[in-house]
Write a structure and sequence with these properties.
Length: 152
């Protein structure tokens, strides 16, 4: 059974944090789904990943292509969890307890400077932990990640 990791972004933007977490997930050998709610943001992140450092290139694609099933990292909005070891939720995209249970890990990244994003993340924490999903909450502090809470 997987676990949910909540990442409260306050010091680095999504464009910096997501590639770092994707790199760690790929080092673990995981196939990753990045689920977002805004196609324009997913397209921007696609460009960010393509334009990143060549030494740490992260092979990926936007959902809807002929090679979706072969992508080690797939960015999309309406993609099912099937076949992914890790699901990363951005922009408040839904993650169900069943998805967490089927994965190695689910990561919920949220903007700590956005009140609506904070409320959505709190709701996700409650829904997942009420369903007996193990969860950890990580926040940025002085340039590093610090675990602030854990449940389950």
């Amino acid at each position: 059974m997987g676990a949910a990791y909540f990442y409260h972004l306050t010091e680095t933007p999504l464009d910096v944090t997501l590639p770092m977490l994707l790199g760690k997930a790929r080092q673990a050998g995981w196939r990753v789904l990045v689920r977002g709610t805004d196609p324009a943001v997913l397209e921007r992140l696609d460009r960010v990943l393509w334009e990143g450092d060549a030494d740490s290139f992260l092979p990926h694609g936007l959902a809807g292509g002929a090679q979706d099933g072969d992508q080690p990292i797939l960015l999309g909005s309406d993609v099912a969890q099937d076949g992914f070891d890790c699901v990363m939720s951005i922009m408040g995209a839904e993650i169900s307890p069943q998805e967490v249970a089927l994965s190695e890990r689910c990561c919920i990244l949220f903007d700590g400077l956005d009140g609506a994003a904070l409320e959505t993340a709190r709701g996700q924490w409650k829904a997942l932990t009420d369903a007996q999903i193990a969860a950890q909450y990580w926040a940025q502090e002085d340039g590093r990640w610090v675990q602030k809470a854990a449940k389950g």
